Amino acid sequence: MIYLWRYIIPIILLNKLNCMKNILLSAIILLSASCTFAKQEVHLKGQLKNIGDTSIGMSYNGALSLIGNSRNIVIHTDRDGYFDTIVPLEKPEYYSISRNTLYLSPGDDLAVFITSSNTEASFNGTGAEANNYMKYRLFPKGGSYLESGKNVGENFMATKYVIDSLAAIRYAELDTLKNVSKVFKDLEKARITADIINSYITYMYYAKELRNLSSPEERKQFLSQHATTIAPYVNPLYKEINEDKYLNVAVVRDVFSYRSDYAEWFEGVEETLFSKELYQAARYAHTIDNESGGEKLDEIATAVSQLTDAGIKRELGFKIEKAGSLLPGKPAFDFQFVDTTDNVYHLSDFRGKIIYVDFWATWCVPCLAESPAYESLAEKFQGQNIVFLSISIDTTKEIWLNYLAKHEKKLTQYYTSDTNYKEDWSIKYIPRFLLIDKEQRIINAYAARPSQESTEELLRSLIEN
Asked: What is the DSSP letter of 217?
């Protein structure tokens, strides 16, 4: 009997040790899981090259970006564009830097190289596979698969064949990805589908048939006929992507914006409550961006209280609050800019004068069209108590300087890379003009263009008062 226990006791002890080992292993796994869950952030480092100065915007590009920009982030770099930063992030989101769309998830640890050309970007580390795939996303404003007219055939059906073939290739590329989530694949499948819809729709603007149509009536009839032609093709595709989660994809938001204009495309495509409120809020946001009256803000604020989605209400509330700070009589936001010889100025340096600011860029055709009228007004008011500040917001100072080297300007020219101006003054489009009084109070944050007949008389009255 004693002989037998010599073997039984070690076995019992071994089982207990194994049990303890399993418990310890389980505890380690649980601890690891909890640590992963707690890491609600993204680590980004690398270089942002030829995109801006040392403060570069990373714009939130999810559904609520249709309303406002409260989720935007500023990345601070050194003079060569190198940076190392932590971005708090609770759930996967799309962001954009210049023409690059990023897909970031909590726990991502990415080394990046990004330029103004999306295909030049490179990503390494956790989250890299999704973002290297995103380098080749299409541009809706260029007609998606039409590539600004490059892939337009002799007629719609010939073009449709090209669109469908290119989309099939993109679907296949997406299917090959291994280290991405199902959520990402679902979103990107929706992007491909929406790009197909967008390509079918925008064909009407690139169609070769338009070249033979001279009268506005003929062109209008062609566009109407095309809308009917594509209805049976786009309708089932709309049904595939008619889910709220897909509105986090920019091109999906784009194609659903046609709902009120082309009912035949949306037959049987029921609008969700979130979608309805999102687009209504976007219309409110558009009004806020283009009208500066306090009464209009009060009206929109009342309407916001009727919305049910907390995220939409919060974003639109932020927008209203921001717009309130730009009403006439409010203090003007200060920001920094430089002249061609790198002398530094601030808006506040011009206190005591009426200030008429022109935000423009070398790539903005409407801006360049306004320039002669702006310079003409500046010449008329020379020597009076008003200053004209022509401020470029080009991506880099070099682009601005190269343009000035080829285009003579009578006015002193300025350039800003100060990220505060865009957020503070809610610059969503250019050209954009500001009028500020002698006490650095806002006269109009959405001032009239210099080419408007009433502008000269308005400036004269401000100087005389």
From this structure: H
Q: Name residues of the chain where pLDDT drops below 70.
A: 1-38, 291-294
Catalytic pick among 174, 210, 364, 368: 364
367 a catalytic residue? yes
Domain 336-464 bears CATH identifier 3.40.30.10: yes
> Tens digit of pLDDT for each residue in 287-296?
888 765 567 8
pLDDT tens across 247-297, in order? 999 999 999 999 999 999 999 999 999 999 999 999 999 888 876 556 788
pTM of the model: 0.77
Q: Which of 278, 355, 367, 389 is catalytic?
A: 367
Active site residue 364: yes
Q: What is the DSSP string of 119-145?
A: GG-EEEEETHHHHHHHTT---GGGTGG
Q: Which long-range contacts (CB under 8 A, 24 or more apart) does 180-186 make?
A: 180/129, 180/130, 180/133, 181/92, 181/105, 183/92, 184/92, 184/103, 184/130, 186/245
Q: Is CATH 2.60.40 the classification given to domain 41-134?
A: yes
